[in-house]
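Q: What structure does this chain adopt?
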Amino acid sequence: MAPKKKSEPLSGQRSIANFFAAKPKPSQNGGAGSTPTAAAPSPAKLLKHSVAGDVAAAKGSADAVPAATAHSPAAMEAVPLSAKSGSKAARPKAAVAAATPSGQAAVRRRVKVYWKDDEAWYTGDVQEFDPATGKHRVLYDDGDEEWVDLAAEQHQWVDRPRAAAGRAKAAGRKRKSVVVESDSEGQASGSEYAASDEEEESEEESLADSEEERSEGENSGASPAKKRRGGGGSKAKGRKPAAGRGKGKQAKAAATPVALPNGSVGLTPASRPTGNGGLPGSAPTAARTGGGMCTAARPPPPASAAAKTPGTAGTVGSLARPSLLAGTPLTGGAAGGKTPGSALREGGSGGGEGADRTSFRDLTAAFPFLHPDRIRDAAQRRPDHPDYDPRTLYVPPEWLKQNKVSPGQQQWWEFKSRHFDSVLLFKMGKFYELFEMDAHIAVEVLGLSYMKGEKPHAGFPEAAYHGMAERLARAGLKVVVVEQIETPDMLKARNEERSAKGLKKETVVRREKVAVLTQATLTDQEMLCSQPEAAYLMALAELPVPDELLAASEHSGAPPCVWVGACAVDAATGQMLLGQWLDDELRSQLRAVLTAVQPVELVLPRGEVSTETRKVARGLLRAPRIEELPLGSEDGQFWDAHTAVAQLEAGGYFPEGSTLPPALAALRDGGAGQAAAAHALGGCLSHLREILLDKQVMAAGRVEQLAETFGIGAGLAGSSAALGGGDGGAGPQYTALDGAALENLEVLENSEGGTQGTLLAALNNCVTPAGRRRLRQWLCRPLYRIADIAARQDAVADLMGGAEEAAAAARGLFKGACVSDLERALARINAAGAGVGSARDAPHVVLYEDVSKKRVQSYAAALHGLQQIQAAVTGFRAVSSHFTSSLLHRLTTPGELFPDMAEALQEMQSATNWEEAKASGRIDPAPGVDAAYDEAVEAIQQAERDLQSYLQVAKRAVGGGVKVSYISQQNNSHVLEVPEGAKVPASWEPCAGKKGFKRYTSRELRELVKAREAAYDAKERAQGGILQGMMRRFAGRKALWDAAVDCMAQLDALMSLAVAAACGSGTMCRPKLVPWSPADGGAPMFRARGLRHPAGVCGPDGTFVPNDIELGGPDAKPFIVLTGPNMGGKSTLMRQVCLASLMAQVGAFVPAESLELNPIDAVFVRMGARDRIMLGQSTFLVELSETSAALHRATPSSLVILDELGRGTSTGDGAAIAAAVLDHLTQRVGCRGMFATHYHHISDSHASDPLVALKHMACAVTPPSEPGGVEEVTFLYKLCDGACPKSYGTNVARLAGLPDCVVHRAAAKAVESEAARQASGAAAPAAVAERQGGGDSQCGGGGDMEVDGTAARAAAERQQGPGTPGVAELLRRVQAACKAAAAPGSSGAAAIGDLLELQEEVRALLLR
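A:
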């Protein structure tokens, strides 16, 4: 296929093509960069370096010239340099030498394939091999892919570099471009962005040129929408290899450190200034690969350099990317007590002197106002000013004037100065362009290539917008989308008006900000497909605790120190959550909120949030984006409570006469009592307005109480709920789970941040994202009232019984793509119908892709999704007579919880033929749907009838027997055509005819044609607003659709629980919940038979040993002290109890033979050993913090789990604290709980306690097979009565692979310590009584571990007397055995065997 002919602008014109290519400067000596002549160059010239004058950032490269070290010289000489076609069909096959690897062995290898017509080598990865054809599928670095017969193509195998993936991506090919000649001395045109006033043309002409040039590539090959990387045209579009970048000496530049606001130092390699408008350029060294081949890519790092993490100060060419990727401006400031710019002076070179590094232009030299010592915000405040705003930048007007910055460049700097913390996607024609520091980020994150020119510049086509913008946002960046709101034609018309008024001609089209994208603000459907979970943006506010609230909280036990307000928004669905609470010094409730909601972005008032709250937020969340707003009442500031309430009224968020959502009305009417929540709402609303989402979110009207959605603050001691309950009315509505419980029990996430092994994973069988989000909310707020729990249990039972087939059919309907995430789709349609949709979709925004077709398809898909929900509900109604569940009946009965939407849905569905509309992107409404459209259609029909009537008149005028007909001629749709020689009326006006025929028109005919055209224009105008009108009517019935989706989410979550119950491995039971109150006497109950861990539900068989366990009730003690060997299953058993309780109160079936319990109002868990370095908390402090929550808030209806409390400190202190905590929970609180410990004397001290049962995890101990060996412990994972005599820690030491000598020595010391403990424990009561004169006994620290056995001997003599027969001899033997086992250099084998025998004799002696 011949190459497509390129149309080039006339000399002197500038176009956007200059962003992508520049004609090489003619060289005086015909060297690199000169235009190729007709004569083929010699192989020596082919291997010659071409000096690069490209962007100094990381793209120093040379011409991609053919070279094939693996092939013969003849093959190299056969490669011409003239053909420029990128057609795959035009690529000739060449006989090449066999290369290895081949076949399947080549998969996952890197390969370079030579494209003859492009005169370039292209690099990619071999993805797969087809044995049938012998071809390999190659995915090139820019996103193109093809099946290649490597045996017939010139290729080279490439070793995969160890450098960061971003460098390989940045080495992609340049986009297709048109070489544009300049007037001045034949030099290549530079970037339009960088052009000075002297050589600038109007953007009106520039964009017009770019449309023709860029569309040329789009029409000749694949659509730009298929491009995934590189943002440019494919090889099939005739892309040209990179040309020489000009002349200059190769030099190695030293790195210049750049200070960052956080006090760290990034490196910006030095550069030399050029004469281009005062902006510095660079001359990077050309990159050369093995075999003399030059590639259009950034050079790899030196082989001697150690691999570094991208973004560190020592990273070559990093350009301080850590600050960029974190959304922080590339500037310095006062940080860490340093003055601005101090970090700059402290920076080092970051690399060896001889390192072959790529040089970037020094931004602080190019733009002096970016230097840490000079930088200011838009209000000209320095970083050390308390009101400094790092989101903005001051660009001095004199700098713009001195450097002759072009109007286009000035427009970019205007946007950048207002959004200095963001990456700008700057729309120019059909492409989004990124300049300067933003270009470096695009190359790093998106894998784009730098465009030609001396300034950093990259871009991608409009069709790739959603994918590219999403990747930037999910990388943690803040992205500002700047769109054109004016076309070149509109600019031309505006200039004509300005000229008529005597005003200067404008050269730049108008643009405006249309979107601000972060991880929490993605709303477009294409950007949400990969993330079904809600991504919340949360504003937090802190206020001092008012006196009235402080007095009211005195009885709660935990003195509050701060009043916290929160407002969380899920922008994709329009959901807003409002809440406030009193919190303690440890921010226990804040931890619960953050763990449940998991916001990805925080909005904080600058200087108002405490250090403790900041530490908790940073410690619990995974790298959240934090936006700090100054306090105030202006836009862009964090509003106080008064301003927030005032803006609700003045913002125009709700139609006149409508009422506020109940949550907002309560906040408004609550006055000072809702100040914390209103303050948080003010910060959130102000930020939403700044990012253009406030009206879209508020239009959804989904404002909910945080406590209602996630159960925060429910069921705590001191709440308004009375103790007891669970009888359907009294008590809290939900069970309280704090952050420690959610984390330690792994309810939502495991310790690695995933879901494997979590309770959510065990129960999640949802088929819709909305159902999964609802199930997640249920797990965060288990029900407490028995009536509510029973309602869900009945629904799950029905779904497993008579409604099983209807449920299966409903799940099949819900799985469809149209229902997939209908909740988010409806939010977008309702916002668009209310006229507050995405600003990028506004009519005045210039977009070149067919967005109308996508909007029609999205709307049609939403209607179809609602039909699927209606069909699923209809299936349930057929079996509703068999329902025992009132909840399921209400969810599937129109007019109950499920809305009666059949009539409204039918009206929407019959408005047009939606299949045709989806295919064409145009809606032809049915009669009666749109009055204006109907009038236009009637006018068209009347015009057609009038034309036909006039034709009959014309036929009569010509005479019978003569054929008269209408034909279309050029711009005339209706012209009369008659045979030549026919007589026509004199009033007819002749038109151009053809042989044998004559054509005429007339005044009457022209009037009729004009009327017809006017009718068609009216139809077109009416048709353009039909979709908006339909969506407006759709939004008017928003309550119907929201109710339907809510029922769908509940049904999906209930069916998920039913699937978990029906498909679980082993017996699944329906828990029985019974009421309890203090008047009943005794303690609340938990009784399980054959209880298994919920994770076993997901496995093919029951991998967990079932256990019977009973807490409280008439026949059991409410608290268990659990002992047993290390790794014996104590923690697992306690988790089973907690998770079974949560499952029961969520309404799920439980993996057990039976389960009976009184409802639990709160679960407190202290489990695991970990510190919180980011919060400044040690392991022991974390333990006690989590324990403190239980001691302050637990009630008799609570469940408390404590695992090895006290191990974070000394044995004596830890044991004392553990014993005191246990006594408090059993004696004063009276709750159910389990206490696992290795302090065996705690078990001994509670042996006769009527409130504590002693249990242990059973194990089988096998004596050592040889003297001196270590006993082997087999874990039985069975709960048994009594205390375990020891913990068998040496067995775990052996399993962990400790050296044998260490294990043997530890075993000897353990035997002696055990003997000492038992002897000390037996003598302790008498000794204490003797010292204190009687009184209560204390918990000891376990005794001293003495190798010589002195402590054991003394204790035995005090208990039985030194003269007791056999005691002295036994103690002498113990002492001798211990000394022998612990003697240095001794294997201790014989002594270990003796000690094992002596241990039993000592125990028997002490028990006499």
